[in-house]
Amino acid sequence: MEIGSIYEINPDTVKTGAEGGLHLAQMEKYGRAHCCFTASGREAIELALISLEREKPDLPKRCLMPAYMCDSVFLPFLNRGWELVFYTVDRGLLSYGEELFRLALETDPGLILIHPYYGTDTCKEMRVPLKALRRSGIYVMEDVTQSYYLEGAGKDVDFVVGSLRKWYAIPDGGFVVSDLPLAEDVLEDGEEQANERLSVLTEKWAYLYDGARSEETKRQEKKAAYRKKNCALEEALDHYTGVRRMSRVTRAMLAEIDEAGAAQKRKENYQYLYEKIEGLRRLRPILQRQGGEAPLYLPIYAREREELQSFLRDHDIYAPVLWPLGEENRNAFMGDEDYIHRHMLALPIDQRYGIDEMERIGEVLTKFERRRVVGIRADANKTAAIGHIMRCITIAGELKKRGMRVVFFTADEWPKEALTTAGMEQICLHTRWDWMEEELPRLGELITRLGVGTLLVDSYQVSPAYFEALRDQVKLVYLDDCFEAVYPVDLLINYNAFYTRFPYYERYGEKTKLLLGTSYVPLREEFSQAAEEIRQEESARTVNGNGFSIFLASGGGDSENAMLGILKKLVEREAFADVMIHVVIGAYYPRGDEMKAFADAHANVRVYHPCRNVAALMKLCDAAASAAGTMLFELSAMQVPTVFFQTADNQRYDSEFFSKEERMIDAGDIRKDREACLNAVCVGLEQLLADGDLRARMREKLLSVTDGKGAERIAEEIAKL
């Protein structure tokens, strides 16, 4: 069962309600003459501002508010032309009266907004100074959205506002109380908006509780549908500038709410979860053990906040970031607010849940604390092909699925875009990529600081001495294509078919675990899934019925400018006049404008930069031309008859394997004789175009090369180290 996120509502419990009054016990502690229920907390603030402006038209429209604050609080002020001045919040979520006095003297505000955080009176240091500021004619508004149950909240202020829909399973709801008259004449009808949101919350109920658990696809479709509607409604709320009254259906629900029971459940959940996570090193609770008076969430600071949030989400626990950085307060951060913004996460502890759910959250957080950290050392630049990074990203994805944290170490910033796009954590060593011994002091320090237990290295620049320097710190894994030395590592991988040329078993013996052969080709998940679908087809693979199509690629940078050379020769051949050519160019391709101009001039050439799903594109093609390397294994998994060419020394053995037994057609080494190689590519493609039986034989041979599950097998072996 999921924990967290928006509330769900059982449609069987919904009652229409009436227009009558609403009494909530928590409102009594404010002891104010006027109370109004609105559709949201944001609209409650809007109503308070309208009322204040009516009663005090000469009041300066300038407000002091905490820099750590939600965007939705800013909006009413901005809509009504107020100037915002921010005061600081420290890491304990406290603000201080001395700064308020100084800012009040400097800026002459008409209003001060305070916000006690997470059920604790984090405003206590300001309350005495606020009394003096009120006596000077400054008004005070207290937002209790995070501290609805807090005793002592709302004392010695002019307005108390809050959001009720953050606390209860209701479609709408906010409130404002004050001794000043409230401008209730501006209230608009809120029934339509409430009904739309009620629909979303009941759809979440259906997702959680209706239907067979085996129908996972349908359940996820329900989830996607209600989430999309909820996002649209929240966006619409941000753009709405009026004030709506609370809906009848919400009034009816609130009339039956057990507020005391909800508060008690929150306290119990907070304290139990606090004790479960107290002492963990990678996160820490921000506030005290007792959690004040029934807090909204249990707030924590996490060193790797995004990693933790993703880890929780993978375990169906949804912990929000409160709040994302807003445009208005972005420049107000003085230091601690930036730390709060980057590290705070809010753990759900609301009344929907009990001790069992808190136990589960605690177990997942403990699992995160104890998970292994795997480092990956790889590079990509003008000389080192992007393939090293890409295959490591694939392995990293499988490691993360197994609950491990993965950190990439790179010599420079070249691979940053590819790693960021893949959602990988990267640390740049700022060293020379082709002299790896230079980085050892810096890398060793990072390994210790991050708690890296295993290091996977994928570089031709590595040496046995490099591994010797690290072997006492970490378990070592090496991706070896060349067998140029015997390396002191715990796990060695050569997924190429030509590994049999080298005496791995004789030279390594039993000291190193060896993963050899095409069972370990680390293909991306899109290929493993597509390959499995192809294997499950009863008949032989067939392509689209829209004419012959060719797939063309040459690595991330196409260092030999092979693709344009091939294209120019293909379009000159009559046989390819009606053939569609799909060209994939990589992140480091330097001739993008030239390639685009060529495609614009030829209707049968289509360029993809980037290509979102290479496997799906390959599956649509009848034949391919590609540089040797990992892509040949991808084409094998997709059973695409291929003509290939060499662009690097380490690809020479690929030709021996793939050119045998009609697996693929070898066009030679483009570096040795460019014209001969380009012509051979065209001849090979023309042969595939004309000979359907040859293509069928090739597809049958390619079926046995790889099943696309190599990355899974590598990750399993790394996990065993």
SSE order and pairing:
Elements: E1 3-4, E2 34-38, H1 41-55, E3 62-66, H2 71-79, E4 83-87, H3 97-107, E5 111-114, H4 124-135, E6 139-143, E7 159-163, E8 174-178, H5 191-209, H6 216-239, H7 248-255, H8 259-277, E9 283-285, E10 297-302, H9 305-314, E11 317-318, H10 336-343, E12 344-348, H11 355-370, E13 373-378, H12 387-401, E14 405-410, H13 416-421, E15 425-428, H14 440-450, E16 452-458, H15 464-470, E17 475-479, E18 491-494, H16 504-508, E19 513-516, H17 525-536, E20 549-553, H18 562-570, E21 580-584, H19 592-601, E22 605-608, H20 614-619, E23 623-627, H21 630-637, E24 642-646, H22 652-658, E25 665-669, H23 674-690, H24 692-702, H25 710-720
Parallel strand pairs: 1-11, 3-4, 3-5, 5-6, 6-7, 13-14, 13-16, 14-15, 16-17, 17-18, 18-19, 20-21, 20-23, 21-22, 23-24, 24-25
Antiparallel strand pairs: 2-8, 7-8, 9-10, 10-12
Your description of this structure?
By secondary structure, this protein is of the alpha/beta class. Helix content is 40%, strand content 16%. It contains 25 helices and 25 strands. β20 (549-553), α18 and β21 form a beta-alpha-beta unit. α5 packs antiparallel against α6 (216-239) and α8 packs parallel to α11. The radius of gyration is 32 Å and the shape is elongated.
